[in-house]
Design brief:
This protein is an all-alpha fold. It contains five helices and no strands.
Length: 104
């Protein structure tokens, strides 16, 4: 497997977390599946994709409707809450580093 293949799979897998309901166990399973660089990059790609879609929807709306951007913000807040809660618990060293990288 190449890094590009793994990144594509990580981005595909993270799409399931693009809601304001985040299952922390599933999210941590996703984190454990990939290398730290891939999960950070996949999270950045997912955020960029979500923001881009919200901005496109905003620009094509007949009146200003920030619902899409508010939805992206809610996803970020939910994810950060799960990460913050997880990093406060006992974690294996590699997972802890990944969680810290995602938070920063």
């Amino acid at each position: 497997l190449t890094l590009a293949t793994l990144l594509a799979k990580a981005v595909e897998d993270i799409a399931q977390f693009s809601t304001d309901q985040l299952d922390s166990a599933q999210y941590l399973d996703w984190v454990d599946r990939y290398q730290a660089q891939l999960i950070v990059l996949a999270a950045q790609i997912a955020w960029s994709t979500n923001v881009d879609a919200a901005l496109v929807a905003l620009s094509s709306a007949p009146k200003l409707d920030y619902t899409g951007l508010k939805s992206v913000l809610k996803i970020v807040e939910t994810t950060l809450n799960v990460l913050a809660d997880s990093v406060l618990q006992e974690q294996p060293a590699v997972r802890r580093r990944k969680l810290e990288n995602l938070i920063t």
